[in-house]
Amino acid sequence: MKNTPEALELITPLLPQQVIEDACEWAIMHGVAFKQADNSARHCPFSVAPTTIKRPMYQHLLKVTPLIAKLVSEVSEDHRFLQHSLNKMSQADPFFSLLMAMHKQVHGDDEQRLKPVRQPLLLMRTDFMDDRDLGAKVIEFNGIAAGMAPFGQRATQLHSYLKEQWSEYYQQWSVEQAAIPADNLGMEQLAVGIATAANKVKQQFVDGGKATFLMVVQPNEDNVYDQHLLEVELQRLGIRTVRRTFAQLSHQLSSGSNQRLMLDGVGAIDAVYLRAGYQYSDYCAPELNEAVCCHTLSQTRVFIEQHYVAMNATISQQLATSKTMQMVLTMLPAKEYLRWGLSLKEAELVKSVLAEMKPVNANTIEWFNREANKRGWVLKNQGEGGGHCIFGEEISEKLQTLEPQQYDAWALMQRLYPHEREKPTVAIRDGKQTIVEDLISEVGLFTAHYQGQPVTDYAGYAGYLIRSKPASENEGGIHSGKGILDSLVLVD
């Protein structure tokens, strides 16, 4: 009979309060925290011991993920293909209609093509789950606001600290005591990629001083520490960093000579990284009282793209990492990938980790309601972050409410059922410990490419983020959901 969490607490003593307090203080001291409304900090939830992954699977992901990023990088610069493939979806989703209009403004349409000025810097996180039967499969591409690489690296460091400082309790909850931690330099390597791109832009001009990095952020952001950790690492590499919201940038940006992007009070900008812009609300400014909603702030993003600056995410990259484009690429034969510079062997490797996806239309709705195993699918819209997935019987209910003109904003994707951790673990949230018996993990691998070329010390790979959650929970986000930070150890 399966042990309940209550029974496990009786069998295995929980951690002493001193261990919990030490771990939480370590987390806050090292920036693994969210900012609170009263300017205090709350530590991110975390596990006390890492999860395992088989070494061959880990090596497989390290090999395939930069290839996915290479493919997406090339697709994002194929503007005719983007507009053709995503036209119907953009008509069905109001936010992507805005993005598509911005894309056509920057790059033209089928009748007119403009040469882009911005230099694409693809900072991408590809999220996987290791399905019990299918192996590792992609959940989604994240090409805009793909953050938390610093938290990923810090989680690995936290587990190393607990192993050294509180070995007895760490070993008590370790799945495999002899396992080797997987190296994780996510914060450092993402900074290397950004610094490389910023310096390359800087070299195109004769102005002196440090290369300057601009992070576009949301107002009243609570996930600031992950962002600041990256900025500190960039500063260590000799990059000047500044932060602004879209509203601030709407009246602070200007054009310098040779299409140089200029920021009031700062000077020339070499690299821009969007941690905002992935949802409609990021462009809404009620105080502007605009006749057309979101015009000013969306035009600020267009203005940035009309300058010679390294940029993530470009409008093209955001379109290329949409759920619909993931579906399009999944449904294409491997040989079609050759047009974007992959070899057939590389294409087949990418195809091997793409889970089946289906468009929503009258035929698939009829098929789903009549003969599909409803537990084997998940319904997704184009939204980023948690709260955009529908499971099981609720899929049929949702499909019934959709109008035909809304179909193209949605997609069906094969649902993944990853292995549960072989041993219960302790989750620490808000300074309190809880035993989790059925923990499953989502593996996010970071990559960095500039102008389509890898810009990290590891051929484009830039570290990982592990988010674990109870198998019974659908929402596994660290920021919003039941997820906890975790790390990896390798087993044979």
UniProtKB/TrEMBL annotation:
<comment type="pathway">
    <text>Sulfur metabolism; glutathione biosynthesis; glutathione from L-cysteine and L-glutamate: step 2/2.</text>
</comment>
<dbReference type="Pfam" id="PF03917">
    <property type="entry name" value="GSH_synth_ATP"/>
</dbReference>
<keyword id="KW-0067">ATP-binding</keyword>
<protein>
    <recommendedName>
        <fullName>glutathione synthase</fullName>
        <ecNumber>6.3.2.3</ecNumber>
    </recommendedName>
</protein>
<dbReference type="GO" id="GO:0046872">
    <property type="term" value="F:metal ion binding"/>
</dbReference>
<keyword id="KW-0547">Nucleotide-binding</keyword>
<dbReference type="InterPro" id="IPR005615">
    <property type="entry name" value="Glutathione_synthase"/>
</dbReference>
<keyword id="KW-0436">Ligase</keyword>
<dbReference type="GO" id="GO:0005829">
    <property type="term" value="C:cytosol"/>
</dbReference>
<comment type="similarity">
    <text>Belongs to the eukaryotic GSH synthase family.</text>
</comment>
<keyword id="KW-0317">Glutathione biosynthesis</keyword>
<dbReference type="GO" id="GO:0005524">
    <property type="term" value="F:ATP binding"/>
</dbReference>
<dbReference type="Pfam" id="PF03199">
    <property type="entry name" value="GSH_synthase"/>
</dbReference>
<dbReference type="InterPro" id="IPR014709">
    <property type="entry name" value="Glutathione_synthase_C_euk"/>
</dbReference>
<dbReference type="InterPro" id="IPR014049">
    <property type="entry name" value="Glutathione_synthase_N_euk"/>
</dbReference>
<dbReference type="InterPro" id="IPR037013">
    <property type="entry name" value="GSH-S_sub-bd_sf"/>
</dbReference>
<dbReference type="InterPro" id="IPR004887">
    <property type="entry name" value="GSH_synth_subst-bd"/>
</dbReference>
<dbReference type="InterPro" id="IPR014042">
    <property type="entry name" value="Glutathione_synthase_a-hlx"/>
</dbReference>
<dbReference type="GO" id="GO:0004363">
    <property type="term" value="F:glutathione synthase activity"/>
</dbReference>
<feature type="domain" description="Glutathione synthase substrate-binding">
    <location>
        <begin position="212"/>
        <end position="320"/>
    </location>
</feature>
<keyword id="KW-0479">Metal-binding</keyword>
<keyword id="KW-0460">Magnesium</keyword>
<dbReference type="GO" id="GO:0043295">
    <property type="term" value="F:glutathione binding"/>
</dbReference>
<dbReference type="InterPro" id="IPR016185">
    <property type="entry name" value="PreATP-grasp_dom_sf"/>
</dbReference>
